[in-house]
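User: I'm putting together notes for a lab meeting next week and I want to include a structural view of one of the chains we've been expressing. I don't have a solved structure, so I'd like a prediction I can at least talk through. The sequence is below, exactly as it appears in our construct file.
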Amino acid sequence: MKWTGLVAVFAILVSCSSQGNLVATSQGIEKSFVVGKTSKKQVHAELGQPHDVRVASKSSRWSYYHTKTQMNGLGFIPIFGLVLPDTNVQTAVRHVQFDAKEKYKSSTLETDSSKMNSLVGVGNGIVSFTADKQSGRVKAEMAKLKLPYDKTEAIKAKDMGTVLGANPEL
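Assistant: Thanks for the context. Below is the predicted structure for the 170-residue chain, given as structure tokens.
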């Protein structure tokens, strides 16, 4: 009986979650895109609905996110867990650039690994989440291209993007 309790505690202390588009944030995925030829609809067919869309006068960018978080156990130590970094966070953000003719221009993959206090992360996420219009930009882009808009996926993506701070301007 004691071992069952210890196993349960260990499972909680090393809990892990993964969220986002792992395919879009994989190395080498952009090799199937041809500069000046691949359309937004073709990128959508390959990678799915973008998590964010940014439009400038002569270009646009689609972004895809993937996060993996793992609790390291510090959050479960009384008092220390309130201030110490208790979560290991690995992030990947794929930015796909399009030219003025809405053809593939380039792609970049940004990765990061950091530690954060989950309470601070939640607080930052709430502030950013309420200020960002990410899902509206994605919905408008999908309507313009006459592609389906998945609201559930957009909400999940907004959660990730705002917490990651992955929505910088073009």
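A couple of points you could mention at the meeting. Helices lie at 2-13, 40-47, 118-131, 134-144, 151-164. Residues 2-164 form one domain.

User: Perfect, that's what I needed.
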